[in-house]
Specification:
Chain lengths: 434, 410
């Protein structure tokens, strides 16, 4: 058993060393490169068709993945920009049971001190979060009540930039911001009176009248329907919270800093606070993005398998019509390895030319779509997913990497059969061949 | 078999290796297309069926403006005359009146805003699967007044269990405050996460009492024999119910425009990729036929010199291309159809994170396939169409050849 395994391993090592040597030899063989490159262009029309097929396939697949990822990317952006921020600080236990029982009693002061010292932080803001009911003279709806410090919140989330009527929270006391969708349901407009009720920290029902200061509309229909903003101090008073808050929401200078920032903040705050990045706060969103990354590889693999047949076909034809020529090369001393190398190189060149053309075409497509694709006809369905009406394609590193990797593998595999066929030809037979 | 067909068929097999590779590419594309189209069809049909059976029914009847606003202000009166109209309507399998209100539900210090649906304990199970979704305890019944069934995440968030007493606060139809105590009789699992956080069911009688709603209902959900029968049922109900009160009768696709749009976008994304796949295969066919024509320049010249009409040469090349694609298509369908039919009988249950992600979209975590007749028919038309397009240039090239030049070549 052990002996056999050792033998197999030794064989593999030998094989590996052998192929490394072969590759090295081919890589150094300038003449082989020149001949292969010239062969690619010997039948311009045939090469043209294959290159076009590869280019169209790549450009089509990459662009459609970029458009779809643009949608996914927007889902993430929307979630971060409307609510999540990059990092949030809660009292321990809040994530499992997001109620008033789990609160930052110091009003987030400890977190605030730490946040002010961290260089990656662009802005932070305290919030109170509670579930409640909003009542208008005509109707009522269940809501998520969020109490904010208007100026600080504006530096983090997009609500202040998403006003469609009235004004953002400022100046006057006892004002609320509600979504356009919620306003339609309640039949209220700017200046209307509404009553916001919720259970306060002692478990008593608390209600207070507010006037609608303004209406907002974001890319998230869910948010527009359910989230109501009031000023922090008024929210704390309504819920009898004193100066306690539910969370601190943080915007990092760069989204990539979120993990570092959260780790550093977690270290400084110790066990009194639960610091989480947006990835931890919205695991399903992250999963969705990851799933999309995996899907990209499957899509590219499918497109390239379809291409592989065409590539193999062209190479096979090229090899057959050159039977005599290859015979001549062999009889003047070219060995089988070099013939394999030659045909494989042809395959790789063919695919690389197709790749280059494909990415050029992709670039053109991205340029034409730079202003985004207007999908307002399907806006409702998109908004329900947290995607806005205009989608801008987003190219990820994987969209460049995956085609290059899959294409190279395809080129090597598709070239293999024709290459071996060519190397097997006996010079004498080949020369007899017309 | 005509001359063109014989020539074409023989030509196809003159280079078996080349033909084999091209056919293999076609088979690959056909299998992928049929498989993925069936997967999407299964997914979408399940989404519709789930949504219809979860909540909306195939057709809903409500007061004018209800579907835009969903408040107590819009209603239909369900009196004996209206009941008779529903019972007598053609294609109606079952119907159930409901009252929908919003309120604040609290247990000690915890409170959540909820949608409260008042349902008829006898009629509702005939239309929707709400009653089957109860995990613990029981569904609402007329024997236990002031009973409430909570969605599971709502129950978790409130820390409520069967037997607990909750306080419901809202606004009645008369615009007065409405509040009362309800006892949790059951906990149900709703696949839609958002709904699972904020949804509760009480009995129709309690809802009418709580919201001071008399014999009104927010809507009447109707189950038709199937989704396709919905428009007919809706039309029938519209004509019978049109009378004193203005009513709005809607089919499922208009009740859930978001779902219809989502399905459209999902389809669009999938077809985009399948089209690319088919185009790539099309180029493969083009190359094969082009090479076949170019290497036969002399032979085709002889045919033309012997008096074969250019149109006949054109047809030979065309038939060659269609035959090539046709063989690939047939083999592809022979492989794909049993494969899809097998998956149709064996749905794949999703687990872990993938299951959680599908639940986010309000779906049960199961992948199903559905082979609609349009799927293989559409695939056939597409592949043959692509083959026809691919053959055009080589066929023109072959037919245009001048015998004298052709004979001189090679």
């Amino acid at each position: 058993m052990g002996g056999r395994t050792a033998a197999v391993l030794a064989g593999l090592r030998r094989g590996g060393r052998f192929s490394t040597q072969v590759f090295a030899a081919i890589a150094r063989d300038r003449i082989l490169w020149r001949v292969a490159w010239r062969n690619v262009w010997r039948n311009g029309r045939r090469t043209g068709v294959v290159v076009t097929a590869i280019a169209v396939g790549i450009a089509g697949a990459v662009l459609s993945m970029a458009i779809q990822f643009g949608m996914v990317f927007q889902m993430v952006e929307t979630a971060i920009a409307t609510d999540l921020g990059h990092v949030q600080v809660h009292a321990p236990g809040f994530r499992d049971d997001p109620g008033l029982d789990h609160r930052l009693d110091d009003g987030g002061r400890a977190g605030g001190v730490a946040l002010d010292e961290l260089p990656q932080v662009a802005a932070w803001s305290p919030r109170v979060r509670a579930s409640g009911l909003i009542t208008s003279p005509r109707s009522s709806a269940g809501i998520q009540l969020i109490a904010i410090e208007p100026a600080r919140e504006a530096a983090i989330t997009v609500v202040s930039d998403s006003m469609v009527a009235g004004a953002y929270l400022d100046g006057d006391a006892r004002r609320v911001l509600i979504g356009q969708a919620l306003a339609d349901r309640l039949h209220v407009k700017v200046g209307s009176k509404v009553v916001v009720s919720a259970t306060d920290v002692h478990g008593d029902l608390a209600g207070e009248a507010f006037r609608v200061a303004g209406l907002y509309r974001t890319a998230s229909l869910e948010m527009d329907r359910t989230t109501v903003f009031v000023r922090l101090s008024e929210g704390q008073k309504l819920l009898a919270l004193g100066e306690a808050v539910s969370e601190l929401v943080v915007r990092a200078r760069d989204r990539k800093d979120a993990a570092d920032l959260a780790a550093e903040l977690g270290r400084r705050l110790g066990s009194e606070a639960d610091v989480r990045t947006w990835r931890e706060l919205a695991p399903l969103l992250v999963y969705f993005v990851d799933m999309f990354d995996q899907m990209a590889w499957i899509v590219y693999a499918a497109v390239f398998i379809a291409m592989a047949f065409g590539i193999a076909n062209v190479l096979l034809m090229a090899v057959f019509e050159r039977t005599r020529e290859i015979g001549v090369m062999r009889s003047i001393g070219m060995n089988g390895q070099r013939v394999v190398g030659l045909v494989t190189l042809e395959s790789v060149f063919l695919v690389l030319v197709g790749l280059a053309a494909g990415f050029a075409l992709t670039g053109l497509g991205l340029f034409l779509l730079r202003d985004g694709i207007d999908l307002s006809r399907w806006a409702q369905g998109l908004n329900a997913l947290g995607v806005s009406n205009t989608i801008t394609p987003v190219l990820r590193p994987a969209d460049v990497l995956a085609p290059v990797v899959v294409a190279t593998i395809t080129a090597l595999l598709a070239g293999l059969w024709p290459a071996i066929r060519a190397s097997r030809a006996q010079p004498a037979d080949a020369l007899r061949h017309v | 078999m005509s001359l063109e067909w014989r020539l074409a068929w023989r030509n196809v097999w003159r280079n078996p290796r080349r033909t084999g590779l091209t056919i293999a590419a076609t088979v690959f594309a056909v299998v992928l297309v049929v498989f993925f189209v069936a997967m999407a069809a299964g997914l979408h049909e399940k989404m519709i069926e789930d949504a219809v059976r979860l909540q909306s029914g195939h057709v809903a009847v409500a007061g004018a403006g209800y579907f835009e606003n969903r408040t107590l202000e819009q209603y239909v009166v369900v009196d004996p005359a209206v009941e008779a109209a529903f019972d007598g309507a053609e294609g109606v399998r079952a119907w159930a009146p409901r009252v929908l209100g919003f309120g604040l539900l609290s247990k000690e210090t915890d409170a959540r805003g909820v949608a409260v649906l008042g349902v008829d304990p006898e009629r509702e199970p005939e239309v929707t699967t709400l009653a089957e979704r109860v995990q613990r305890g029981a569904f609402v019944s007329n024997d236990t007044p002031r009973g409430i069934v909570l969605a599971s995440r709502l129950a978790d968030n409130l820390g409520a269990e069967v037997g607990d007493v909750l306080f419901l606060y809202s606004q009645a139809w008369t615009l007065e405050s409405a509040f009362d105590l309800f006892t949790v009789v059951g906990v149900m699992k709703i696949p839609d996460v958002n709904m699972d956080r904020s949804f509760a069911v009480i009995s129709l009688a309690d809802a009418r009492d709580f919201f001071v709603y008399g014999d009104r209902a927010s809507e009447v959900a109707v189950l038709a024999s199937d989704a396709e029968a919905a428009p007919l049922v809706a039309a029938g109900l519209r004509s019978t119910l049109e009378g004193a009160e203005p009513v709005d009768v809607r089919t499922w696709d208009r009740l859930m425009p978001e779902l219809v749009q989502f399905i459209f976008l999902d389809d669009a994304a999938m077809y985009m990729l399948l089209v690319i796949l088919v185009v790539v295969v099309g180029f493969g066919i083009l190359n094969t036929i082009l090479m076949a024509v170019l290497e036969r320049t002399r032979e085709l010249g002889v045919l033309l010199a012997l008096g074969l009409r250019p149109m006949a040469v054109f047809r030979v090349v065309y038939v060659e291309s269609l035959a090539l694609a046709g063989v690939g298509l047939l083999l592809g369908l022979v492989l794909a159809i049993p494969l899809v039919l097998w998956f149709e009988g064996h749905p794949v249950a999703l687990t872990g994170e993938m299951a959680a992600a599908t639940e986010l979209f309000g779906m049960e975590p199961v992948m199903t396939w559905k082979l609609k007749p349009l799927n293989p028919i559409g695939s056939t038309i597409t592949i043959l169409g692509v083959a026809a397009l691919a053959a055009f240039y080589p066929a023109v090239k072959a037919a245009r050849g001048r015998p004298v030049d052709a004979l001189r070549s090679l």
